[in-house]
Batch of 2 targets.
Target 1
Amino acid sequence: MTPFLQAAVTQMLPNAGDGENCAECGFAWDTPGTAAMGLVRDGPQRLGELLDRAEVSAPITGGPWSSSAYVWHVGDVTRAWSERLHSLSVDPDAAWAGFDPDELAQARHYEALPRATAPWALERAVEALDLSLGSLDTDTPFEHPEWGRGTVADALRWLAHEVVHHELDIRRAGSPA
Ligand SMILES: [Zn+2]
């Protein structure tokens, strides 16, 4: 794992363990960049279908977010990364700014945002990500302000994990504990 991916997993996923796969959802951290992007592209449909079936008011086991909030979260994170990868293309030396996803959730009021629009917003974000990839090679390096050096493939792995892991969160939310 690169410093970026290692730091991201350690800081953001305290229950993910330190193995080759996320201990919770099973995502393989060495998933190839192109396969990871495939998972990201499938995200709007997979999460949208789950959202259709999930209980609207189902509580999240062990977490404060609703199923709809998770989809808004994946959309916002994906859009933020599309902007970062675009900047990597047009201004590779530009510094990035990190953000706290919980603070963003509060500022955006995920719980009050329209549930039916969450998959649509995620789909638009995936389109932006596709555009931002442009001619970038998956080996292209970047420097994350908090997590250090990574590659475009790492960014795609991180976003693919968002889809897979939060899919699990939504399934957990929609079924009795
Ligand atoms: Zn996971």
Target 2
Amino acid sequence: MVKNLSGDLRHILCYPIPTDECFNTRLLELSKLNVALIIPYGHVFLKGKIKVLGKGYASIVVKAVDLEDNVVALKIRRVDSRRSSLIHEAENLALANTVNVGPRLLGFTENIIMYEYIDGIKLKEFIEGASENHIIKMVSDLFRQCFRLDMIGLDHGELSRPYSHILIRKPHKPYIIDFESSSVLRKPSNLTSIISSLIIKEGSLQQKLRVVLGVSNKQSLIEALREYKRNIGPRTFLKILKLLNLA
Ligand SMILES: Nc1ncnc2c1ncn2[C@@H]1O[C@H](COP(=O)(O)OP(=O)(O)OP(=O)(O)O)[C@@H](O)[C@H]1O
Ligand SMILES: [Mg+2]
């Protein structure tokens, strides 16, 4: 039996406009996933009062507990999402998990993905507040994750906008989230996208990262990225790591 402390379950499960049909379908999906309880928790509010972890154009993300008392996160498809199901996203998250990227997938139905809850902060907040040592550890891990995704041919698709697609669990563990736009059909550009937007672009956070990493020559980094793009592999990746003083 799925309970909800605040009685706002209909709005969470069938945002933004609940119907009985939608509610019943999704209650069934919650029970298939062995969800015991949805926890009203997070910094985002639905309808001005219901606490959730996140609200995107495609989904609502909430904290929940399963029947074995494990804390999990649920990504619930919005009724007005342009995607007709979350299955494609779940499958690509499963693929990312094979190279230890992304929150661990725990189960999925057509409209709900159950995955590891990340008690984290946004990338921007992390870069602004963390120590140099932790920033270096975080980007080193993040760029290696992007390389692993490139090597299995899974393009995340939105890493040119990293600030909304990466969560950091303290002290410095990055998690790439939201595989909604990911694909195995495009040429992967995870590493080049993320380095372009985090290091090469102009901006105060980029400037901070360049100083922390000791990147003095942007031009040779751009050339190394071009070479990597033409020939993705350990050799071209190592060259990039060296220019970032991460190898
Ligand atoms: N596993 C998780 N643990 C904790 N919080 C999460 C998790 N996954 C997502 N969130 C939170 O929920 C928000 C929305 O998640 P996500 O980006 O996957 O949804 P979306 O509907 O695809 O969003 P968008 O419309 O921006 O693409 C995230 O920004 C993050 O704050
Ligand atoms: Mg999305």
